[in-house]
Target: Dynein regulatory complex subunit 7
Amino acid sequence: MEVLREHGEEEEEEKKVFVISNELQDLEEKLSKIQVHIPNVVPEFDWSSIDTSQIPASYKTNSAKEQMLLQLADNFHRQYAHLCPDRQPLFLHPLNECGVEKFVSTTVRPTLQPYPELYNWDGCAQFVSDYLTMEPLLSPITPPSYLPSPTTILKYQRGNCFGFSVLLCSLLIGAGYDAYCVNGYATREICMMDETREVCPLLEKSEEVLKEPMKEKIKKYAVKPPRDLRSKFELQQVAKKEADTEAAQKKKQKEEEERVMEAEKPKPDPLYGLRVHAWVLVLSGKREVPESFFINPFTAHSYSTTDDHFLGIESIWNHKNYWVNMQDCWNGCKDLTFDLGDPVRWEFMLLGTDKPLLLLPEEEEEELADEDLDDFDKEEEEKGFDMPASWVDPIQISRKEFETRCPQGKKVIQYKNAKLEKWAPYLNSNGLVKRLTVYEDPECIRVLEVKEWFENREDMMNMRELNKKTEVTTEYFSPGHIQGLKAHTYKTMEPETERSMEFYGETRVDGLQKRVENAKEMTEYFEGRSDFLHYRHTMFGKRTKRAQKLLVNTELNARPIVQIKEQFHRNPEKPADEDVAERIFMIVEERIMLTYHCKDDYITASKKEFIKRKDVDNKGNKIIMTSDMCVSYQVGSFVKNKKLLHLYEMMLKLTEAEKQLRHQVWESETEVLEILKIREEEAAASKLTVSMYDTERNEKSKQQRETMERLMQEERQRQVEQDLDYLAPFLIQMGSTEKMSKWQALRLKEDCLSDFKHRLIDKANLIQARFETETQELQKKQQWYQQNQLSMTLEDEDAYLAYCSDAMFCIRILEIRLNRHKEMAPQKYIELEEKLCKDPRLAEYLKFNV
Model:
């Protein structure tokens, strides 16, 4: 019996080994089926291949009312084709991203955004132009066969002119404008978004209104001007000669401009008048719009309705109705009338009570007033078909998307002799958000000027201009700089060189507005001072050799002062002959000159000149004050000259004022050096400020939050590890385990091994999913590079190559991890089998020798 029992146990163990080998073979077969392939070719973006699994049901189906609307649209199109057989088919119900026909009016989704910048038409147009990437039409002479929803266009940040227009029209209607999408024809430059012949809007100078000079009142008593003794004939000949010279110059300039325009004129377009384009029409009336105008959604530029770039209109629509243009477009859009209530000029599709009214002259309106009242009840009874609600979800733009704006955070626009680059905030470490480069030549090789705009800088700099010809740099600052700096113009940051600094006077105690400095002089302008000082000019001399060797900035090392001039405004509390208008301290010559304000009804001003002398004469006698030390001119002979004691006291005050002025000039020089040092440190650091409410970019709060989350995650992981028991889930399913049979032990072992096998397979699938995600991201980046490689800089190309290198490295690592997982999975399976056999809870039921 014992021999038979041992023989049965051996057979049972052989069966177990056979079952385990089968499980291992099954695991290896399933893992071998998981394959990964590294991409080689980048396919073009295809709207039909986008993921529609998370799209709402309204995108995939049509309601009963929408189906009825499509039938009405087909009937309307048949009548239109019968009446106008020579015209192009109407753009009525293209396919959406799910391949479902949708009427174009229901694609418009009016939505008001919570951002103040998107409340005006120019802000909405600029956002759409910056945020989306332009896709040309597949056929330049026919409308597209598909029209994705505005939400999908926003998600993928790309679209053709029809997608641009629908999105912009939705934002404008949501903001309260009377906006319409237009299907028509435009020039090649408009359709292809070619702005290389357009002047950059940032370079367009605003028209200055010339003010007429004020005519001076003729005084009753005035000195007659001297007689003009010149020959009138000679004056006429000179004026005639100057007029001929000016006319010749104007003619030459006009010929040169015509020659340049002829050279820059584009080549004839073989498809002129046939290129299909979509744009936005904004009618006057709502939002205080005084005159109707067009908006090109590609560039966000506004145009008059008579502009030559727009060659014709087929139809327009909004979220309520659809209108077909019945007017002749032989002269482009110049002769079109946008009175949508006129059925002769605009054929509407749906008859509704909210359609625009026909604009009639006042006389005809009064004549037809009574007839309209009689027919009002009949029109109310004949109510037309209402437009169904939009099938598109509300347009939602997150704060991050609104700030990022441009695709990948950057956009480059090429203008005539200029290039404009835009970046998202915080994308560049120095806060750069916009750069305009102006060139001398049309080939954009020789740089003439560079303008840069900044945001969120800690040093409050918001703009910088660099003139490449003069090498002059001008920096502009917002209020809040540590030194109250407003603008800084310089060639070099070296001290005692030519520069100009402007300040916010209200933030300074001394009221300084501007300081202009070079190696020989310094001029300061003031405003709002209690002593009425508004101008100070200081002239410097050459330094001595000994002073040049001193490196410490002390008053002894300051530049020698030759002269200081100050000018004051009129102080109404003082008499004019006691109110100083100008004082000049000639330090080298040891003289002080005072000029007072003019009295009323006087044409000359009082003056005083003080000559400083040594305290003792040649004989050693002490000199206090003599009459020849002050030369004065007093207006009005009846005024007595002041005594020597008074003049002596005045000279002492002026001498003390001279010492203070020399110290103030040295303080001004020291302040300039301090500002230059601060500017060098700020330029090297380029720190950016982050709002305390910006949780994404506020590093302190972000690090604190991440630290707390990490500690909590570690605590949870530690608790899980303490409570971890690989048999616990299966023991719970079995219930009471105090008395376990052999069959239950075998079942417990099989369940545990089966679960572990599925986990190994799932891990392999997870690695494969991550591999595919990295592959898709690389494909998108390569596609973006193909679309933008012509306008990319060297820095962008280096960044792209670095990204590709990192992505390929990640893909290779995932491939290695997958292969290693395939090799280690069988070993881990065997190790778990051995561990289960040695588990004390199962050992007595599973007698398995490794």
In short: The first helix runs from residue 2 to 32. Residues 39-43, 376-382 have pLDDT under 50 and may be disordered. DSSP finds 18 helices and 25 strands in the chain.
